[in-house]
Every structure is written in structure tokens, then in C-alpha cells.
Amino acid sequence: MIYSSSLKAMTDVLSNFNFWSILIAASFIIFIGFIFQRKKLIFSDWEKVVVKIILYAALPALALKSFLIDINTEDIWESIFIAVIGIIFYTSLTFGSKYFFIGKTKALQDALGMSIAFSSAVYFGVMIVKAISPDQQKTIDLYSSLFLIGFWIFMYSAADNIMKKKRFNKNEIENSLLNKKEPKSFLSFIKVFKNPVIIATFVGIFLWLFQLIPGVKIIHINDEYYSISRIDKFIPGLSQILNILAPLASPLAWFSMGAVLAKSQIKEALKSSLVWWTTFIKNVITPIICVILFLIFSLILKGITGNWISSLAFVLCVAIIASPTANTIVGYAIIYNKEPKIASHVGTLTILTSIITIPLWILVASAIGATQLFS
After folding, report:
1. Is 142:76 a contact under the CB 8 Å cutoff?
2. Transmembrane residues, as ranges (predicted)?
3. Is 325 helix (H, G, I), strand (E, B) or coil?
């Protein structure tokens, strides 16, 4: 029975027209970015402009839009568990990923550890799962935003500090001792909350949870009542603005990744055993860790509420973790001169291999999600 349900789930994914369409579309846009960069049809350092558009417009719009839906009190425990799983996962990987590279220099441990801890979460896994389940768009946005709370906080705080940390060789230690160390302050952690994506995420969470307050459903539209926190329902143009900006993140990121590939030394990346080892951990080991966490917490949720975590949430989060290394981490490596060459090689190879490994992980997760361990 379990075998037949798992096989059916995998068959449904493989026979899904939208599944193959989004894979082809993503590959094609990456290829366009590659050609544009190779033919020099785009101006120098254009990526900085694109990154700012994604960071300051598209991703905040996507984060806020994700929470502007009616809250379902029956699923509130599942939502909390998804956020907790994400925080546990990113806490563990942020501070524990370096142990995959014992014996390497501290600088390599930092760069490669962060490369496997953080994915291009929104651009690949989320979009593919959306293509598979087009009728679950709002739910997918909510699940992904909850799971990525830990991602945004740690990538712009701990990951930044780890990549920024100076690693001296023996000849530099004496000189480094003469320099004054910057005093650590709680204010340095607070800076992370100035990030527009994090601001939009927490504003969205507040508006979403605000609906739990009795008597707030007073906005009457088309014979239905909405909470006053559903600002998209009564602020003119807000819904349209979010709907226009939010989808920009993925195509712009795919185009940028194609350009990054064009600038990369792909042949050199393919020859490095360390780059392949890091890619294996990123594409295989970290999704396995995610699967284990979901299995454990699904059992806990069953014990508390009598319900399992939904298979949709499970498949989505595994796909997110299986996505290639985040461009932000490669950017940190370049800015802080923390093994930028090998970090770029890892980013390049994870992009190339994820085109194959993400669909495989979606198939595996769909098969597991079809068992009685998920709803």
C-alpha cells in the first residue's frame, strides 16, 4: 500500500506538464544570462543593480504577500512547527557545517560551510513546487516564508560575521595582535533587522497572527468579512503592487546565475575534488538532514494535535534545501576575501548539478510524503 502510494506520487510529478515546463524555463533563462554575459551585451557590474532590485523590492514584496492570507486556526500548530524546523535547521548548519571540512584551513571551513548552509531558496525549489501545485500558490508562499525565517536572520547576521572574520596565518598573527579589535555589541546583531526582507517578513507575520484577535473581522467586501490586518483588501493598489514585484525575484536571479556561470572557470571547478565534495554535501547530505528533521517533527505534531505535517510543506522545504548555493554567500566570499575562488566554484557547480538533483529530491520527497508519516 505504501509502495503503491509512493509510486503514484512520483508518477504524478514526472507526468506533470508544469513540472517540466518550469525546469526548461529556468534552464533557458540561465542560458540567456550566460549568452548575454559571454557576448558582453550587458554593462559591467550590472549584477549589483539586479541584486538590489531583488533584495529591496522583489523579495520584500514576496515575503509580505505570503502572509496576506486568511489564517487557518486548525493549521496554526503546523505553521509553528515549520518555522521551528527552519530555525533549527539553519542554526545547526550555520554553526555546524564547518565540521564537514575538518583538516582544512579555518578560512576554507568558513567559506565552504556557509556555501552548504544557505541556498538560493526562493528561486529554484519554491518555483518548481509552485509549478507542480498551481492551485496551492498561497499555501506554498506561506510555508516557504515560515520555513525561511531562520534563513534570512542567520544569513544576514551569523553568516555575514563568519565570512567577515579574519583568519590569519602564522606570519600575520603577530601583526594582527597589534590591531584593535572592534568591541562586540548587541547593536551589531540588531542591524540584521534593518534588512528589508526581514522587516517585511516580521510585518507579515504580525499581520497574519493579528487575525487571531476576536472581533477584528470588520472589513466588509463582497459579502465577506476580513480582518483589518488584511491590508491588501482595502488599500488601493497594494495587492497589484505586490503581485507585480513578487514574481520578479526568480527570473532576475536565474538570469544573474547564467551570467555568473559565464564569468566562472567551469573547467577548473569540475577538476576540484573539494568542490565536488562540497557540492555533494550541499545537494545530497543537507536535504537528508531536512528529511530527518521533518520526520521527527511530524511525529511530534501527530502526538500533540493528532495531525501530521502536510506532504506539501515537506516536499517544498526539501526542494528549498536542495537548491544551489545562495549568491549572497559567494558575494560575502568576494567582499571579505574569504576563499572567493573556491566559493565561486562551489556556487557554479551547485547551479549546474541542482538542475538534476532538485527534481530527484522532489521525486524522493513526494514518495516519502505519500506515506502515512505525512498528511
Report:
1. no
2. 17-37, 49-68, 80-100, 112-130, 142-159, 197-221, 241-262, 274-300, 312-335, 347-370
3. strand
Task: Return the domain boundaries, the chain.
Answer: 2-166+190-369
Which of 196, 309, 194 is closest to 249 using CA atoms?
196
**Residues paired with residue 229 on neighbouring β-strands, in sequence order:** none
For residues 122 and 58, is the Cβ–Cβ distance under 8 A? no
Residues 13-43 pLDDT 10s: 677 777 778 778 888 888 888 888 888 777 6
CA distance 169 to 174: 10
Angle at Cα 47 formed by Cα 42 and Cα 53, nearest 5°? 115
User: Do the beta carbons of residue 315 and residue 369 sit within 8 Å?
Assistant: yes
Distance CA 243, CA 325 (A): 26
Of 289, 288, 297, the residue nearest 360 (C-alpha)? 288
Q: What angle do CA 216, 199, 93 make, to 5 degrees?
A: 115
Which pTM value belongs to this model?
A: 0.81
Query: What is the CATH code for 2-166+190-369?
Result: 1.20.1530
Count CA atoms closer than 13 A to 59's CA, side-chain side.
24
